[in-house]
Design brief:
The chain has 391 residues and is of the alpha+beta class. The protein is 22% helix and 27% strand. Bound molecules: N-oxalylglycine and zinc ion (2 copies).
């Protein structure tokens, strides 16, 4: 009966020419290649019932595997495979939820990402209160989701005590220890090994482009601001959404976008005990051409090694990209106050600060962590009650 979805049960059949499974569902035909289907068989011979992990390797599946028969059950489709007679039972919900026909270019990592210019934030940066964040798991998930969607969140009223930045990182993931230690102090040093440890301006950049992989999350926790009234003393922070900037570059100057995404750039960092090098494009695309990561840091860029013509073309694009990243309309600015802790996606959001008065004891503590842990924490906090027991 049309419109009565309850009676519109899918029916399964074998596609004679290919041996694939065909499922008629809601007026559409969903095709599932036999090899794919067999690889995803959920039976206890194929998936370990305790861990849920796959027991076979693709080479264990007969190359000429084909769907031989299907039978419809109320909630499942039972499939037998030739040539070995293996039997699999797929839930209808799982099949329709994993349909290949109609699967577009949706990018699981891009889901829900909200690219922004300064004006899009309406003068309000995503923020949360530390106490509520600690006490309320739903609130904590929402604040961390801001990092996934907008690329950053500011936690307010985090205790102004040295080392607390590590406590913040451990609420959602694991601290990525580096040659700078578990945490690093950002303050004016007499013999700085990094321009961050001076009172100079720092233009928009991502941190540690000389590592592969880069730390994907960065935290900056303010212990002291540059000036008592926060006015005129400088040291204001600026953030730029690199994914938005990349979308603008792709739109405004496809040629520049092509060289910036297509040129391998080297970055390096050297001190007494460290010699780091990494070589990656400034904008990293996935095989479908979607922006996956930004790496940009003029301070640690090494001389570009490429044929003469490529260097010429690169420099034109590089200039356009750098100029775009400096546009005021892209940059949101604020002053970190003691107790503020900024958490941001270091593969997407570029950070900057203005110069400040060296006589004032501005002091931040920073550390690195990773997005996989943050995303896992959000996913676990968002689970239905007890769903994890139901594997
Ligand atoms: C850094 C940095 C910004 C600041 O330490 O990575 O960019 O506000 N610092 O001092
Ligand atoms: Zn199986
Ligand atoms: Zn930095």
């Amino acid at each position: 009966m049309p419109g009565d979805t309850g009676s519109m049960r899918e029916t399964a059949s074998v596609r004679a020419a290919t041996g694939d499974l065909e499922l008629a569902a809601d007026g559409r035909t969903l095709r599932f290649p036999a090899g794919w289907l067999r690889d995803n068989c959920p039976c206890p011979l194929c998936l370990d019932p305790v861990t849920g992990q796959r027991l076979h390797d693709i080479t264990d599946i007969p190359e000429d595997c084909a769907v031989a028969t299907t039978s419809d059950e109320p909630e499942h489709i039972v499939v037998t495979f030739a040539p070995d007679g293996h039997s699999s039972r797929f839930s209808r919900a799982w099949l329709t939820g994993h349909a290949l026909d109609g699967y577009g270019d949706s990018d699981p990592r891009a889901d829900g990402k909200q690219l922004w210019r300064k004006a899009d934030l309406d003068g309000r940066i995503p923020e949360g209160d530390w106490r509520a964040y600690l006490e309320n798991p739903g609130y904590r998930a929402d604040r961390l989701r801001d990092v996934m969607r907008k690329g950053f969140v500011m936690l307010r009223d985090v205790p102004v005590a040295a080392g607390t930045v590590l406590t913040v990182a451990r609420t959602f993931g694991y601290v990525r220890e580096t040659n700078y230690g578990a945490l690093f102090d950002v303050r004016v040093e007499p013999a700085p090994e990094n321009l961050a440890f001076t009172s100079s301006e720092i233009t928009p950049h991502t941190d540690n482009p000389y590592r592969d992989p880069v730390p994907t999350v960065q935290l900056l926790h303010c212990l002291r601001s540059a000036g008592p009234g926060d006015v005129g003393a400088g040291g204001e922070s600026g953030l730029v959404d690199g994914f938005m900037a990349a979308a603008i570059l792709r739109d405004e100057d496809p040629e520049a976008f092509a060289v910036v995404t297509g040129t391998m750039c080297s970055f390096g960092y050297t001190d007494n005990g460290t010699e780091l090098r990494a070589c990656q494009p400034l904008i990293h695309l996935d095989p479908r051409g979607r922006v996956r990561g930004i790496r940009f840091n003029n301070r640690s860029a090494l001389p570009l090694r490429a044929p003469y013509d490529e260097v010429l073309a690169f420099y034109a694009g590089y200039r356009r990209w750098a100029a775009l990243l400096r546009r005021d309309e892209l940059r949101v600015e604020f002053t970190l106050k003691p107790g503020d802790c900024l958490i941001f996606d270091n593969t997407r959001v570029l950070h900057a600060r203005t110069a400040f008065t060296a006589t004032e004891p501005r002091h931040l503590q920073g550390c690195y962590a990773d997005l996989d842990g943050l995303e896992s924490t959000v996913a676990v906090l968002s689970r239905e009650p007890r769903s994890w027991t139901a594997r």
